[in-house]
Amino acid sequence: MKLYTYWRSTTSYRVRIAMNLKGLDFEPVPVDLVSGEQKAPDYAALNPGLGVPTLVLDDGTVLTQSMAILDWLEETHPDPALLPTDAVARAKVRAAAFTIAADVHPVNNLRVIARLKSMGHSEEEAVAWMTDWMTSGFAAFSTLIDPDAPFCFGDVPGLADLCLVPQLYNAHRWGCDLTPFARLTQIEARCLDLPAFDAARPENQPDAP
Ligand SMILES: N[C@@H](CCC(=O)N[C@@H](CS)C(=O)NCC(=O)O)C(=O)O
Fold first, then answer.
1. What stretches of the chain adopt beta strand conformation (E)?
2. CA of 146 to the centre of ligand 1 (A)
3. pLDDT tens digits for 3-41?
4. Domain limits at 63?
5. Is residue 176 part of a domain?
6. Do 6 and 75 share a domain, yes or no?
7. Residues 68 and 23 in one domain
8. Is there a domain that residue 207 lies in?
9. Cβ neighbours around 104 below 10 Å, total
10. How many CB atoms lie within 10 A of CB 175?
């Protein structure tokens, strides 16, 4: 499989972690978001959303949207599971994951920040915009997860953890105050100790500078 990815992309990071957890080999194909490679016609033909990740299966099937790719991975490679078996428990894990994937990431995407700046907002205002959305998202996320487990929802990492860790990478990058979220940074440290998360870290990607 080929995974079109960018080292700092949090959506790509989610998928890299899941593929590593499930022990799946993939060839990373870097897409340089800063130079705009996601908008090049060849790439746009693969992913009309003009973003990463895109997963191309060995038979040429093209999958887009990180959360849909994660669903496909879970359905086709169920072990180890990213979701619990009980329907209510699954809904709770998905609610936490989507707090990041649907409520935080989209409003902080590169194209959104570029648009804010093109409308005259300063770098400082753009950073305040991003950290505000992260802070409210992390507050909601914190109340949705299990308060006591080593990971977000139990003894092993799952869908919520693999959305959380990349978003925390972005939070560190932009100086978001994480002191109110000690439980989240504890989970992050526990996750990053695992080889599957470590190998997926931005700085461990072939296109990292
Ligand atoms: N909802 C999509 C978002 C994909 C996306 O936009 N990814 C970001 C990187 S994290 C990107 O490629 N941004 C490029 C841009 O905004 O121009 C997904 O989850 O796959």
1. 2-5, 27-30, 54-56, 62-64
2. 28
3. 999 999 999 999 999 999 999 999 999 999 999 999 999
4. 2-79
5. yes
6. yes
7. yes
8. no
9. 24
10. 10
